[in-house]
Design brief:
The complex is a heterodimer of chains A (272) and B (243).
Chain A (H helix, E strand, L loop, with lengths): L10 H15 L4 H18 L4 E4 L4 E5 L8 E6 L3 E8 L2 E6 L4 E5 H4 L17 H5 L3 E10 L2 E11 L4 E11 L3 E13 L6 E16 L9 E17 L2 E13 L6 E13 L1
Chain B lengths: L1 H24 L7 H24 L25 E11 L5 E12 L4 E11 L4 H5 L12 E20 L3 E18 L2 E15 L4 E14 L6 E15 L1
Classes of the chains: A alpha+beta (272), B alpha+beta (243).
Chain lengths: 272, 243
């Protein structure tokens, strides 16, 4: 192992000087900083007994100054020593050693540590297995809604690997009218373990339409809408996947007949 | 001189021994009563256990495990991938001058490289040069001058690093770029926008970040007669908190 050329930073020194800088440089956020610092201290104290302790089982565990591959390694924890896990940010864990040194450990390295009872430290990692089984999804994208441009954001919760409850918020901007819609539905992913998997969807929601200022049309209206759709999702890398779908909408208007609209969109989404 | 002292010492020691042992030998009515009951109870329990053991221990056990298996509960790890905050700055609305703006932002960090970000902001447009020079002419009403926008972006941290303040302080920092789509409500109409931007983030602590960012919100506008692409530069100083 190459000796680290960077200086080991004392935690206490760093914390106090950081506090000073926050106070001195960013006066606008001082009140906020103070309050949250106090809250954090209290929270830390409360969580003191609840921190997870893991033991290094590889020859050493490297600690970096920041949660990124570019940040220098400034400390090494030896085999058999333990660290307390403070929090996780993306694929990095902030840990505290027995001596009180705090630093970021890579998730891949943390995977090789052990719990107090000798069992491996297991947590979800952003990979294909995570793409198959996860709790939450979040995505943004755009498309077309009955000829109008569509901006779209969605969130989904997995009931099972196949079945998801979904909430979609969209805004559409057309030549004749603009509007917003909010929809809730159920999505059935046919083969969640495949890299590219088709899915079917069914849902309902409300749509609010406002005519463009320049064109005279009936006044703003809010209607109920329902959709049936199909699409596919493709795992890209890490925690990302691409999602494209087609939805066939029926808008239950207050007029004599219902309005039928087509929607297609492409989204970039992540799971966690 | 020596012997009387020794005698005195020996007598005291003897008395003390007799007295102390005597106390315990005597069965005081208030002393040791509970002890007897407890003793009897444990004896009864032991007898009962022995009987029970005799009853079901048909195959004799070689080792009697008497350590109960402990159930280890793994504490939940705090995930700090969300970042929320707000700030103020300037937005230059094409043809309508530069105005101050207030904005809020929320981000979700997916990996160390990529994050999703939603921005929302509001400003009030100034006057066009035509209005300024033309005297009483007003192209837009007060309400129409309100410039409200939002955007959904994908961010990429492309230059992570550290900044140094003096000899003893290092703070994590990073440059990032943003690409996204959104909408702007201006002059009584909604328009689709494409936003491109870049920002610089400094983290004085693990949970606090200070951002300086520039974003260009591009949209089509036909407000001044011809249909054209407008570039609206926004500069923002904001503070965010990780949670």
């Amino acid at each position: 192992m190459e000796p680290s050329i960077t200086t080991t930073r004392s935690r206490r020194l760093r914390r106090t000087s950081l506090g000073f800088v926050v106070l001195a440089c960013f006066l606008s956020v001082t009140a906020l900083a103070k309050q949250t610092e106090a809250e954090k201290a209290a929270k830390e104290q409360a969580a003191q007994e609840k921190l997870l302790q893991v033991f290094v089982s590889e020859p050493y565990l490297e600690l970096s100054t920041g949660p990124g591959r570019g940040y220098p390694v400034f400390h090494v924890v030896e085999r058999e020593a333990s660290v307390d896990v403070l929090f996780r940010r993306t694929d990095w864990f902030k840990v505290r050693t027995e001596q009180g040194v705090e630093g970021y450990a890579r998730a891949r390295d943390m995977r090789r540590t052990k719990l107090a009872d000798g069992s491996p430290f297991v947590f979800n990692l952003g990979d294909m297995a995570g793409f198959t089984t996860h709790d939450w999804e979040l995505g943004i994208g755009g498309g077309d809604y009955g000829g109008a441009s569509l901006i779209n954001a969605y969130g989904a919760y997995s009931l099972t690997d196949n079945m998801k409850i979904e909430l979609t918020l969209s805004q559409f901007l057309g030549n004749f009218s603009n509007g917003y819609k909010a929809e809730a539905g159920i999505t059935h992913v046919m083969f969640p373990e495949w890299r590219i998997s088709p899915f079917l969807e069914l849902g309902t929601g409300i749509v609010y339409v406002e005519p463009r200022a320049t064109i005279i049309l009936p006044e703003d209206r809010t209607d109920q809408t329902a959709y049936v759709g199909a699409g596919f999702r493709m795992y890209l890398t890490r925690r990302f996947f691409l999602r494209a779908d087609y939805r066939w909408h029926t808008v239950f208007t207050s007029r004599d007949d219902n309005q039928e609209l087509e929607e297609w969109k492409v989204l970039i989404a992540c799971f966690f | 001189m020596e012997s009387p002292n020794r005698l005195l010492l020996l007598t005291t020691a003897l008395c003390a021994t007799l007295l102390l042992s005597g106390c315990s030998l005597l069965r005081w009515p208030w002393f040791g009563k509970n002890k007897n009951v407890e003793q009897q109870q444990t004896e009864d329990q032991a007898a009962a256990e022995e009987e029970a053991e005799d009853a079901d221990s048909t195959p004799p056990r070689v080792i009697e495990p008497n350590v109960a298996r402990r159930k280890i509960k793994t504490p939940k790890i705090d995930n700090e991938n969300w970042e929320i905050g707000g700030g103020a700055g300037f937005v230059s609305i094409e043809d309508f001058g530069t105005s101050s703006t207030y904005a809020g932002q929320i981000s979700y960090h997916v990996t160390e490289d990529f994050f999703f970000r939603a921005d929302i902001g509001q400003s009030t447009a100034g006057k066009t040069s035509f209005e300024t020079l033309g005297g009483d002419i007003e192209l837009l009403t007060g309400n129409q001058r309100r410039f409200t926008y939002y955007s959904l972006s994908l961010g990429y941290n492309f230059l992570p690093g550290e900044v140094f303040l003096g000899r003893k302080l290092a703070m994590n920092s990073g440059f990032y770029t943003l690409v996204g789509i959104g909408s702007v409500k201006f002059a009584g109409d909604n328009r689709l926008t494409v936003n491109l931007g870049a920002g610089f983030r400094v983290l004085p602590t693990d949970w606090l970040a200070i951002h300086i960012g520039v974003q260009d919100r591009v949209f089509n506008s036909d407000l001044l007669g011809e249909d054209k692409v407008t570039n609206n530069m926004e500069m923002l100083l904001s503070a965010t908190v990780f949670f």
